[in-house]
Protein 1
Amino acid sequence: MSKTQQSFDAIVVGAGFAGLYMLHRLRGLGLAVRVLEAGDGVGGTWYWNRYPGARCDVESMQYSYQFSDELAQEWSWSERYSAQPEILRYANHVADRFDLRRDIQFNTAVTSAHFDDGSNHWDVGTSDGTHLSARFLVMATGCLSTANLPQIKGRESFAGSTYHTGRWPHEGVDFSAKRVGIIGTGSSAVQSIPLIAQEAQHLFVFQRTPTYSVPAHNAPLDREEERRIKADYRGFRARAAQTVFDIDGDFSATPALSVSEEERQRVYEERWRQGGLTYLGAFGDLVLDSKANETAQDFVRQKIREIVKTPKVAEALMPDHAVGTKRLCVDTSYYDTFNRPNVTLVNLRHTPIEEIVPVGIRTSERLFELDAIVYATGFDAMTGALDRIDIRGANGLALKETWSAGPKTYLGIATSGFPNLFMIAAGPGSPAVLSNMIPSIEQHVNFISDIIGHMGERQLSRIEATPAAQEAWVAHVNEVAAPTLFPSTNSWYVGANIPGKPRIFMPYIGGYPVYVQKCNDVAANNFEGFVLSANA
Ligand code: FAD
Ligand code: NAP
């Protein structure tokens, strides 16, 4: 503790949408707050992911804050799904509008956080060697903020340029006249492939698992629709919050197999025409019943057959896992891009990558000579950012060890043994990653602020989730996941994309409204499941 230089009421790690709003709320409670951010600007996801085509997959009128009516009314999005530069401008606008920057320290990565049982304070160590101390530590470190570079033999030997979609150069990249290889076909690849293909001399897509994607039908925002929503923005948000993913849309309860084949096709066709994530709301049992799910899979496979002209390529692009159990992709011209003469699909299921060499990528079939490699290989999701910090709770307990057999939390927000520590929207056991994330972030921040406000009013200095409450929540999270098709698919939701990561279905899939009700009940019952005390 002797190295500690500055003391605060709360330290928030991360200046994405979660960190920004957390700072605003804690300031409102009169707390002295410091936000520590590894990057040199605000925006988190939208600061780092500057790859071509990056845009939201939840419509902008919903993928935005609602805590300030003035902000919601005055900000006007240009497109149905805004692109990364506009979302980043929005994050910067919020930082300026609420005068947040003066409490944010940029270019500062948190490397350690140790709880002192005697003082009930966290000692936070940073990349520049300084230490700060605070009663409360809030991890707003992001669910998809730790880029995953795959362990491919020879990766470092490549002599050309390499990029990861989640760490894209700020100045952009010029792929013209370049032979480019992209590894991965998740959401980031689906968005970037059509645009890189337009620029590159040739694009080789290295696909291990084909992906389901539905059209975005992105367009300039319909101003009439904007006016209609803004006339009752709160009501619109409140209605969305009653849906399972907190996304406005029609989520049917009808089982897929209860209607005729003709009716099913009509419904899927209609959803395809609407575009976007609500394809999964076509029927009520798509993520519960594998037979029902197959009908939604078949429909997308048929679309791929119709769009992609070369039958062999179409066949290779067809996914075979349950649709929706990996994040559904939302695209602009993804499948159609494989009709371009300068795009080659490399099916790694048949010809796996053997190594990366100075001139390119060698599969079991041949060498692909490349000038650039793009890793669209995703993230060490949810636990990744926390794992990279040496977090030690009461009695020196290391979070990494405590979670070695799988992460456990109470409500996705706190974890037993780590007093006065909160997580926002990245915590396993939270529904956030399955939902429209900005409203989920706001809900988490409001709940955490209510706890801290409650403690301040009663001069309490320590809060900790009880092991019993945590076990009960973990059991509930597992219980609601078990009957769904999610746990059986290899996805980042279960940690399958990171070698050695324990396989646990991390998000809470009981539904956003159920989760919110649970948090409200916990708050109404004096934060039951937590022990609050004033012992220091
Ligand atoms: P982040 O935005 O990830 O911010 C976390 C911040 O913490 C980062 O700036 C990071 O630098 C910082 N940080 C992490 N560790 C440390 C450390 N040790 N020290 C200091 N700083 C640290 N969700 C949706 O709901 N809809 C979408 O359309 C959508 N699109 C997405 C598109 C992409 C490309 C990606 C990757 C994710 C997308 N998401 C989407 C999820 C998205 O991550 C969330 O919506 C949201 O932006 C998360 O905000 P956050 O503040 O919780 O985390
Ligand atoms: P991702 O969904 O995890 O996809 C990573 C891709 O890389 C997968 O196709 C994966 O194949 C492949 N891959 C990983 N390691 C590989 C290896 N060693 N060899 C070959 N292929 C490998 O990551 P992402 O696309 O960055 O998306 C992550 C999440 O961010 C999304 O699920 C979504 O929540 C969010 N996101 C949203 C949007 C949006 O539309 N707004 C855009 C981007 C991201 P396997 O499947 O075989 O592992």
Protein 2
Amino acid sequence: MTEQIQCRACKKTNTYLFLPLGDHPAANAFLTPQQLKQIKQQEQQEQRWPLDTIACLDCGLVLVKDQLPADFFTEYLYVPSGSETMKRHFASFANDIRSRWITDKSDRVVDIGCNDGLLLKACNDIGVATLGIEPAANIAEMARAKGVEIFNEYFTAESAQRIRDKWGSAKVITTTNTFNHVDDLHGFMRGVVTLLADDGTFIIEVPQAITYVEMTEFDTVYHEHLSTFAVKSLADLFDFFDFTIVDIQPLPIHGGSMRVSARRTHFASKESSPAIEWIERERKAGLFDRATYDAVAKRTQKIRRDLLALLANLMGDGKKIAGYGAPAKGNTLLNYCGIGPHILSFLADRNELKHGRYSPGMHIPIVPPDRIAEEKPDYLLILAWNFADEIMEQQKAFSAAGGKFIVPIPEPRIIG
Ligand code: JHZ
């Protein structure tokens, strides 16, 4: 199982294909009833691509090589606003930006991949000027409805110049959970170099490779999530552009993320960069060793075996099981484990954009959470396990009535 490809962060070719998860459809391609009918009539499956998880043994980037065709999504169904955790997270991030990096009333924060504008609305509310960059038309409209100014195109080295010509340079560029969707990281960084003010700060939030490894978060990899970053991957990438990491904050969201701030090296000191200590931690955690990834692959296979055995036992006892959450990562897990509507009668999710649709590949119906009280399943498999606490808190009535939860990651367990 070796395949040498070039790492999209450090550009080296010391890569190791350690976890082939099989052929998967696009994780966010929830099917409409018409699309599902068409697939069934033609006795076809939706389009699939190999989901091969690869590690760069030089910088610790965990990456997927195969990608969806350009412009695959004309509309995007993920919005962060359905979660109270995310609302609190972005409100606190907005305050952090204002207190640490904004020095003048005219300073502007540009958020690349601003989705429905949750972060920028929080910035606007505390008097910080903003601009959102969002190529997906449907969610760009949601951001506009919150009063956020939007540039409705992809961010590239070329569009960065047009943005700068129209709005001026950015004092802060943020990008939360977008960097991990970008194939051409070097092109993206050229855009950052063009748009960022000389004394500006570039802040990204991304899932961390170290928690991917330690918690066996195999499901967070899908064709849109092309990269899970180590601090070393970012430090190596920024080095090409003469940027230095000046701050790293670990974040609990999305199962373990980090907020990394970088500035032009002449505004920062390489010698005192927090990256040095973090990279040492990553080395100790085995992020640059083949054996670490062999162990992740083994633990992933064990999760599949244990979860399927647990669900089979419950069904054998006549228990009714449904899923809670229809996150993208849930579709990696469902397709990898082969868990379909014969096991989970529905997936309850608060995101209205997903209601009435079917999960890609496994074709489980997505319904509003009210259905839990109507159908009274005995168990809820929490696919959005990164929000398990918030979800269990909301579903107190379900547990009070005797319902139990199954959390699949880092190993399947029953709660309640
Ligand atoms: P959630 C997304 O991944 C998509 P996903 C994207 N690819 C990305 O980069 C990562 O985030 C970081 C629902 N829910 O956020 C809402 C409830 O129903 O873990 C969501 O559909 N009730 C852009 O899709 C899903 O669960 C609730 O109370 O894996 C959570 O999806 C809560 C809290 C959530 O991300």
